[in-house]
Specification:
heterodimer; A: alpha/beta; five-stranded parallel beta sheet; 28 strands; elongated; B: about 100 residues; alpha+beta; two-stranded antiparallel sheet; disordered N terminus
Chain lengths: ~800, ~100
Amino acid sequence: MTRVELVLSKLPDAKRNDKGWAARCPAHDDKRPSLNITEGEGARALVHCHAGCSPENITAALGLKLADLMPAKAAGFTLMRRPTAKPKPAAKSTPFFTTAAAAVAELERKHRPRAAMWTYHNAGGEPVGVILRWNLPTGGKEIRPVSRNCSGWFIGGMAERRPLYHLPELLARPSERVYVAEGEKCCDTLAGLGLLATTSPHGSMSAGKADWTPLTGREVVILPDNDDAGQKYADDVAAILAKLSPPATVRVVRLPDAWPELPAGGDIADVVEAGKDLKTISSKLAALVDAAEPEIPPKRPPTVEPLTPFPTDTLPEPARSFVRACASAIGCDESFIALPLLCALASAIGNTRRVQLKRGWTEPAILWAVLVGDSGTLKSPALEVALRAIRKRQHTAIKRHAEAMKKYQDDLMRWEKDEAAWKRSKAGDDPPVKPEEPQADRCWCDDVTVEALAVLLQNQGRGLLLVRDELSGWLGGFDRYAQGKGGDVARWLEMFGGRSMVVDRKSGNPRTIYVPRAAVSVCGGIQPVTLARALGTEHRENGLAARLLLACPRLRPKRWTEAEISPELERRIAAVFDRLYDLCPTTDDEGEVQPVIVPLSAGGKSAWVDFYNAHGQEQAGLSGDLSAAWSKLEGYAARLALVVHFVRWAAGDSSLANADEIDADSIAAGVKLSRWFGNEARRVYAILGESEEERDRRRVVELIQRKGGSISGRELVQSCRAYRTVAAAEAALEGLAEHGMGIWKTPEQCGRGGPKARRFVLAAECGVNVYSNPLGDSVSDNSVDVDVVDTGDAKDADWGEV
Amino acid sequence: MTVPDLGDGSHLLAELYALGIQLEADGERLRFRPREAVTPDIAARLKAHKAELLAAVGKRDALDRRIAEQVRRLVPYTTADGRQVLVNPRYRRELERLGLL
């Protein structure tokens, strides 16, 4: 009696399966067979309880001792040698074979002809691994892999991130349902049923070592073997598939539901072997799959928030009618008119007023708005028409300034004469008064350098509106002249708060420009791709991105419209601007010009507190970019309320009881606008969205760009706190290389100045070098002259041999 | 020159490189050039560490092959600023998004 037979004699319910035998475990109250009995090395009996009972307990429950499982002398099948029996031979002695067939032949020579063989392919369809199976005389099986690496074929498993079985078919049939079974035999059986099937190589415990990404977002049916190990494999695979982005829709089908006679450990191959009638099996399997509920509800890829129309109703008259009229005349979205109009109105109020939310917390009338849209979304015409009143105002001011300058020149000449006469007369009376040079009244500008702005702001206490058809010049132009010291961004962030600004110039008079309240509203257009690029890590981290009010309406087909903007409406909006520009700041006790502080009315305060608390709750549930945007939208609600309030005042809104207080209606309007911008921020961030992995990659790429296009692992550790070790940094760079974003250059390829650490070079950077060499010459079978390797012309006589 | 000895011949390869000596593997043969740069002392070291050097050269060549493979996949493309570069077409879109193209 063999050792296995001895154990089986104690287990009358033991049933044969593919792996050996399955029985109910005697060591615990077993409802389903969870004890596996197989024959091990040297004909020893192996017992394994999937519920976790120890072999000691199992043998004790069977009335045996552990020693009873062992034969008197290990003998027999040599193929059962386990790697744990001896330490692995050193890697260098691993024999390599030129072909898979040679490696397989070697295994078959050592053992005996195989029972089955399955081949794994990479995405390109090249064979990269072979799994061989021998059936053991005792009924079990033995599996040996043969794999390929850069040195050739060898007897051993494939490297991790192993390809799935039938990978080329999986890639070629991307919309088909995929069946995942345990083992290649089952996959082939399913393929015989006309189904697309796959499995992971190297056994049910190695699911996590395979690359399951080809199943991303696909419909997957898992057919586990009828035992606990099968269930565990199904659980492992389902968990992996749930983490894909987007996750696969997974159904797990229990075969015994359709084939109750299936023995423990049985699988679809057993079903087919026993059933013979493939048609019936196919239809039963299909019914089983249809009846199964998806394990994981199919998660949709992050959806972009639905577009909500701009709340034009919120705007007070005549702004509301003006926005609608302009939008319908141009055929653009109302938000494209409303945003620049609000910015222009805010800049007209400028430093003359600030809303006070409580003591110590005031918000200025400063808005930064960006129209996000592809080319052809009518950004520029929208900006043009929305800002017509302010442009006209500036045009008139410049004309007036030119006339004033003419008069000033005459006055100056007259004064020079008078002064000369006064000096000659030596009379005791006062000298003639020198005329003052008139200053141009500016309300908008398009110069983005901080120094030029500071000069303008010095003469414009109210502040300015910066308008750019293409805002990428502004977002990408910081620190153009500051050698990357970050001074410009810091000053812009100050300007958003309407705080003071000091600029020290190298030339000009005065050298130091001090602006006590630098208030600049900004508006302009940008394309989504450019915005995504401009709002890089730096601008997200320094908070500049969060300060932008964004509007990104859907592209709508152009349609001719007879709609026009009535001159009356234009006149009314111009009158609002005129009145706002007539607002004056106040002076404090020391004679300093100060904005008039506008408090909230009791109703306004109550509306504000409600908003503040609700907004705070919302923000607590957010993180990252959205959380940053939400923190700024809080202040924006107050700023927008301030603008709405003074437009109501300027338009003579009869419902405005007290011009000196911001009432609940204005706060409600500000809140509604702010909420719309919040929704829009969600949408735009989702549009520009990127996965965490993509963001990490982008950050490293940005860093390498700043470093001049290449980096070593050590430099990355020194430059980025996220990578604490050279190994971690090199792994990140390997990731970039895998994504084709660059290549490694070996020391030989870095120049002749001695050995250096290998460097990762960005694709666009290294591409220049690669491209500058004729590709045909630079690529050979085993090397590529990426840069300066000059072995090509070497004569054989130059070489010596060890 | 301090090159960490990883015991795999790479340090010796780097040292030889610094001396302007190139190595090449041809099966089990290890060739070097230029002949005149290899002093008897260096030749003795080459002989003593032939196996490690063959392995290190093999490793280096494997890396070269990988680069060659990567380069083969690249296609010519014009960057945003008008330069001609080679990029992996699979990642063109992501490179564009990153502003590299």
